[in-house]
Task: structure prediction
Amino acid sequence: MDQVPVIEVKAVHKSFKTVHAVKGIDLRIFKGQFVALLGPNGAGKTTLVEMIEGIQKPDQGEIHIMGKKWRGNEDELHQIIGISLQETRYIDKLTVWETLKLFSSFFNLEKDRVNEIIDITGLEEKRKSYIVNLSGGQRQRLAMGISLLNSPKILLLDEPTTGLDPNARREIWSILLKLKQQSETSLILTTHYMEEAEQLCNHIIIIDQGEILKEGTLEQLLDESQDKKIVEFTLEESQFSADLLMTPSAFHIHWDPVNKKGSLEINQLETDLPEFFKFLNQRNLQLKNLEFRKRTLDDLFTQLTGRHLHE
Amino acid sequence: MNKFIRQNQLYQLILARVKETIREPGVIFWGMIFPMLMSLGLGIAFMNKTDIFRKVAVITDNGVRTSNPDTNLTLESFFSKKAAQVGLTGDGFTSFRYTIKDDKLGNSTFLFQKMSWDKAMVLLKRGSLSIILNEKNGRIEYHFDPMNPDAQLTYLKLSRIFGGNGVPVGENHENIQPLTVSGTRYIDFLIPGLIAMGVMMSTMWGISYDIIEKRSKKLLRRMVATPMKKSHFLIALMTVRLVMNFVEGALLFIFASLVFGITIQGNLAALFMLFIAGNMVFAGMAIFISSHTSNTEVGNGFINAVVMPMMVLSGIFFSYHNFPDWSLYFIKPLPLTMLADGLRSIFIEGAGFAEITIPSLILAATGILFFATGLRIFKWH
Ligand SMILES: Nc1ncnc2c1ncn2[C@@H]1O[C@H](COP(=O)(O)OP(=O)(O)OP(=O)(O)O)[C@@H](O)[C@H]1O
Ligand SMILES: [Mg+2]
Result:
């Protein structure tokens, strides 16, 4: 792709008093691309996104939006960007409609656009409700509606579905998927949910402790292990000793001491599985339960960091 | 209304701020009803013509335990000739009531209660009486705290009653002009002060608290991440506050003029100028105070730290001239003092631009200084 990236982040660092929150991150995002930043709590997602939004300033490195720096171009860039912060509480005693009207005035928009947004976000019934009386999911939809008011070329959503039930989450996804079809908007979305990243985004960036661990399409991320299957197993309690599993062997076993559950990757079921049974047998370990499943981003994360995405 | 205005962000910001403000029920009560109630309560409590009722102890044991009422010759003859015996009062003393009738200054009623010295001291310490009479050999001794103005007043009245040979002297005020005309009563002093205090309180709380709250809700950073002009946000906030303050002040004035008949003697245009200047100084201070913190409790502390000393020192309820002379150097330049004094001089003394221009300029300039400084260090994110 030789067009100008919509967002370009070069070697950006950001530290707070004791935390090095972002440690040299590079990003290039093009028109119409939907990108997920996937990472556990404290990974630096919000810090990175807020630097792209111009809310925080990088200590080092450069950020260009449409080829322009924030400094001196604020007015222009604010026009084309739509954001939803991780945690914004709007004015309690304004109604949904009044809140949208207020924000639409910042972009000099007509009230037709406000009605469109109410329609898109399905807040018709709540049009006249005070913000203070909205449910969590309705507030998130309002926040998303506000971010969409100006039909932004760049949309930055920080955990838009955290805390929502699966239905409410899917409603937000469907709004975003419609947007994706029009391929006018570039999106960066942060999330803890790999399912969300898988559903919405063609490019996924896994970050942890301020660094990019791995990025690519879902296929690329999981490809190198396409044939791999995940085997999860539990053992008979009496015979359990975690050390036995750690002894060197052909298998790289990950043991989760909390759930007393082991997992490993297997390439060829036909050959590897009997090997694994033999391995257990030699150590006098008896299986209690065994399951196969497809590899997920969580497995990838675990492989990369030794931790789960949700801990 | 035309579309251009309806889409205008400043108009929408003002509209949102107005709605947000008036939908908070506390605003109407604390900003409008409460000052009226306060003026009503204080105005009535300090009405000029008040009947005075004082208890006076009359010692019956002369400090020694030989209780003999006959030694109180002057007092006894006064009680039997002029005063009315009340019988045993609730507290168990033989009591006599005597009233000096006075149409102009209000009646003064004294209740003389016979008791022992010890008992009298106890009641004196409790504050239920302020003066003790003790007659020795036909001379009346007055015991009271000379630092207590009320006791002094009672002493003066009593000594006139018992002056000379102890025959009460009729009160005669040919040469006293009672000061009950509009402009000299306590309520005339109070209302301009209350208006000044209202401007300070509403502005400091209305502006500072709103900014800090919006910052802590991350709403401020959300708003400035749009093409919204920061100046419009602040202008809307201050404009709405100014208008609300005007309404609050006007309502209080109308109320006080209906109930107490207070009037504005001076120049209305000068009053308006001073009012604007007062709003400027407190708006500036409010922006300055709220420029950095995003913690509403810290904000509360800041606001109180500014507001409380001025409430106490600036002579809103009682003149600060009772404070020591040296302290007046600190008190007089306080913004609330300047505003309250200025308003009073217009309300009561009939002042105009000549007297008001300089204080107004000082207030406005102070406000601009605070505003500019606050804006330089203002944290939008
Ligand atoms: N203003 C700040 N002052 C000090 N430390 C901060 C600040 N903001 C973030 N941090 C720290 O920087 C690190 C990254 O925080 P960040 O909010 O970017 O994480 P995140 O990936 O968004 O996490 P989450 O999923 O919980 O939202 C954390 O360790 C956090 O404590
Ligand atoms: Mg975050």
Q: What stands out?
A: Chain B touches chain A through 25 residues (CB under 8 Å). Chain B has two domains: 2-45+185-377, 53-178. Residues 158 and 359 of chain B are 46 Å apart (CA to CA). The longest helix of chain B spans residues 186-216.
